[in-house]
Amino acid sequence: MKAIFVQFKCRPGRAYAVADALVSSVEEISEVYSTSGQYDLLAKFYLDDDRDLGHFVTEQLQTLDGVTDTFTTVAFKAFGGAAR
Prior knowledge:
- By secondary structure, this protein is an alpha+beta fold.
- The chain has one domain (2-75): Lrp/AsnC effector binding domain/regulation of amino acid metabolism (RAM) domain (Alpha-Beta Plaits), CATH 3.30.70.
- It contains two helices and four strands, in the order E-H-E-E-H-E.
- The protein has helices spanning 15-25, 53-61, and strands at 2-10, 29-34, 41-47, 67-75.
- A hairpin with a 6-residue loop joins strand 2 and strand 3.
- The longest helix has 11 residues, at 15-25.
- The relative contact order is 0.33.
């Protein structure tokens, strides 16, 4: 499994609806947080090693109603806490 973190910019007033949609419709999600700064949400996902990251982000995440932009970071190694 590989972990990815995706930050989401949302249309004004849509961050909570986007967070709800992520939790209810994207089975790969681990957790989602509201954030301050340039992005509204930060979510962590676990994908199978053979899963195409580009297709996952562009087809399942960027198409959610209310999402205007995403920024994706691929994680390589967890150094503490509960790693999957």
